[in-house]
Amino acid sequence: RTVRTLLTAARMKRVDTSKVVFEDGVAMWQQGDASLYTDEAVHKRAAVRHDAAVLKLLHLWWETALRSMRRSSQAGDTDHSLSKEEYVGMMKKIYKVMIDEYDEEDALECAEEDWEKDARGSNTLSRELFCDAIFELADIWTRTCERQEYVDFLSMLHEAIAVKVDDDEYV
Question: Phi-psi category of 26—alpha, beta or left, where left has phi over 0 and alpha has psi -120 to 50?
Answer without folding.
Answer: beta
